[in-house]
Amino acid sequence: RTMEDEWGVIMFFAEFKGARKERQSGGMEKLAMFGERRGRRGAELKVLSAVEQKKPGYISSSLKNYISDEDWGTDLRWLKDDELSYALGKRGMTRKKLARASGCIVEYVGNVVHMSGNKRQRVRAGQYLDWLFQQLAGPVHVDYKARPDCTVVEVPTACVGYVTGNRRETLGKMEEEWGVLMFFLDSYKEDPDRHKRVMERLAIFGLPEGRAGAEL
Q1: CA separation for the pair 13, 33 (Å, rounded)
Q2: What is the pLDDT of residues 70-106, one digit of tens each?
Q3: Taking a C-beta distance cutoff of 8 angstroms, is the pair 46, 70 a contact?
């Protein structure tokens, strides 16, 4: 019942004409899902991911990169193996943070990330994914001033290591607790007299309540 509880749906295998013959021949079963659209889509993607794990390529082999032009839809993006590992995270935590911060359903079916939701949610999920990969190479450049989904905190340069933690452990715990994404930007303040950095800018992305909690 895990998927039903997570997505607030009711799921069961439905009988249909010819079902018995299908089962006997090792054919297909029909899984019915009842509930709101978002819940049904989240549960559907969980099922597709499970099928793909059991039979690699069964779902993903026919998929291509795709951007939906509908207000509520699904965007698809292929990831390399190393990108998938990083975007999934330990125990799937990075995937969960992406989903909570963007408000988008984010699920991996093989190497294909599915982002389902309205247009704004899908765009944010795609951007957050890009920035995750960018921060592997260093600070990320984001024009944050016009973004309603971003809070920027100025952190004294001497405190950056303490805030980040060993191997990003402290930031990771805050992200997990509040459902946000956090990373340092390539924007900073410099002491004009000493020509030395005195403040770094930490960007927090997500929903208002999560950003406020992480900021505090």
Answers
A1: 9
A2: 999 999 999 999 999 999 988 899 999 999 999 999 9
A3: no
